[in-house]
Amino acid sequence: MSWQNANWLFIDTETTGLNPADGARVIELGWARVVNMKIVKTGNWLLNPGVQVPAEITNITGIKQEDLEGQPSFKDISHKFYNEMVSSEYMMAFNVKFDKGMIDNEFKLINMSPPQKQWLDPLIWIRRFLQLGDNKLKTVTQHFKVELERAHRADADAEAAALATIKFINSFEGKAMPDNPSELANMEKVWDADQRVINKTKYQSKTKLNKP
Fold first, then answer.
1. pTM of the predicted protein model
2. CATH of residue 66
């Protein structure tokens, strides 16, 4: 297995909040399938979560409560999305912990288990190898000259992030990154742990400097 013949699914979610434990739900699910380092298929669902969309979410995404009326629930599209996941060798998201957590919660709410797949997070690779000032998706796509005209919409974010990831892999594969995605999965855990230590140290130093 190498990146050049891998089949992976890049996803993005828009949600009513940040934490499923606080009742946050998915209101839009977008995805882009990559085969042989090319996007071959995309998809998107607006989802009716059965809860109110906060005004601040509408301000960010442009998704209004009335846009979701008459739209399917996650349960309605769950088998279609499940099949897309099953058809993938790897799952990806830009900040996996958030999107995977939201997806896992949606499956849990309908008493359904998602397929067991290896999830990868290009955000971790970008933090390790690129110095961009910040790691927002818009900054990353601008760096790789990828258009992102409809930021904070799941379909646009998923496709743009997938294109940026393809360009990143083409730049670093066989150099700083392994050719085999499965090998990268193990390295990613180490890099993520290192970044957490660095961020904690920076936070402690900043706190110490700001003490009166």
1. 0.89
2. 3.30.420.10
